[in-house]
Amino acid sequence: ADAVLSKHEYATRAEIRASFEHVLESGEVVSAEYVVVKAKTELVEEVLRVSFTGVTACPCVQRVYSYVESCPLESTPTHLQRSVLTITVKSSNPIQLDPLEVYRVCRRAFSNTLASKLKRLEEYAHVKQTVSNPRFVEDVARVAVKLFVEAFSNMLRESDKLAVEVDSFESIHVFDTHATVENTIAEFKRELGINS
Q1: Which of 54, 113, 133, 156 has the CA that lies 20 to 30 A from 2?
Q2: Residue of 161, 166, 94 lying closest to 135 (CA atoms)
Q3: In the prediction, which pLDDT does 25 show?
């Protein structure tokens, strides 16, 4: 941004965007975008956005099925769906977070991660693990906030903003679901009972 501003003397503000996708060995894709907005004399804003996909298992139908069929909850089927988690941090200071570390910490917000190239028994185990950790879309958002704030709040300022969005692409419904939560790091720490 500094180079753009110095090259174009008439400009008073520059915005630079850089994005990448990282394919993990598992086949999962982590997308990240950095945005730097700078004025002639100051950093206006930095933004880091990290997105990745996981699996959620529906807790509602699982409980109903367990009740109607009189079977133990932990061995009750439910429907699964892919969900996309997007974590956005905005700061008036440089952001020093590693997008892949954000992924490693926050992927635990899902019922489970995506998997590819599974043999039959591995797929069975993966589905069993997924349905043993059912989550609504709003649960994923809440858990992601908690995981993020516990892991990274010491690297951010209290006034920095965190937004967590989750989009669930429903497998049996004609609609999708969405959850968003946004606040300052200070407010999230207060809500979670985390001391500064």
Answers
A1: 156
A2: 166
A3: 87
Regions of the chain short of the pLDDT cut 50: none
How far apart CA 162 and CA 152 sit, in angstroms, is 11
Among candidates 100, 5, 87, 24, which has minimal Cα distance to 51? 87
CA distance 5 to 40: 7
Classify 173 as helix, strand or coil: coil
State the residue for tokens 């090259």: 7
Residues 6+ apart with CB under 8 A from 79: 57, 58, 61, 171, 172
CA distance 91 to 3: 21
Residue whose C-alpha is closest to residue 189's, from 141, 164, 156, 140: 156
For residue 68, give both structure tokens. Answer: 């109607």
- CB-count burial class (<10 Å; 0-12, 13-18, 19+) for 77: middle
Phi, psi dihedrals of residue 58, rounded to the nearest 5°: -75, 120
φ, ψ for residue 161, nearest 5 deg:
-105, 140
Q: Tally the C-alpha atoms within 13 A of residue 66's C-alpha that lie toward its C-beta.
A: 15
Per-residue model confidence as pLDDT tens digits over 68-116: 999 998 888 899 999 999 999 999 999 999 999 999 999 999 999 998 8
Q: Which residue has the tokens 């977070």?
A: 97
